[in-house]
Amino acid sequence: MLTICQQYRLSTTKDGDDGPLIAVSVIDLLPHCFSSVYTFYDPILSSSLELGKYTVLRELEFVMRRRASKLYPEDAVSGYYLGYYIHDNPKMTYKSSYRPSQLLCPVYKQWVDFDAGRRRLEEESPVRHCCALGEPAGSANVSSSKPSSFRVDDLLLDVGNCIVNVGLLNAEGRGIIDSAIQEFVAEVGEDISHKFVIKLH
Fold first, then answer.
1. Which of 36-45, 67-76, 187-196 has the highest mean predicted lDDT (pLDDT)?
2. Which terminus of the chain faces fewer neighbouring Cβ atoms within 10 Å, N or C?
């Protein structure tokens, strides 16, 4: 991995010196993508120059130039990664403005079209905004790929003063939490749900 720091300045002065620094972006060059890590800029100038958008466009230009270069394999840089997308955080939703774009399904680790992924988030998980965005490879039915060894009883539950397996709860306790547990498993997927300790509020 190579980390690149790009500086953006206003035009050089009459004396030939660099103009004032107005923005900085930090980027990681990974084997197959260009990852935007962090950008900061002059907030007053940005109100008219939209420096955040400008730095993104310059980084996209860098990706396109690198892909077109004969110095690297064609797929050396296959994409531009803007980081996590948080659906209900206004500071993160700006990422949806750049098209075409995709979201990575957290369950099946596949890229899906942004609009299709957003619709699925809003329809299947309107409160938590966390669910499988795609389908398992080679199947149109999510349930067909679930491992047969999975057992809800083996999931871990934080009950306040200790952590227990769901299967240790009595019938009354299961009646209270089963619907929430099933919703959790449906959203994150059976293959990774056993890696969590579930705490109910």
1. 36-45
2. C
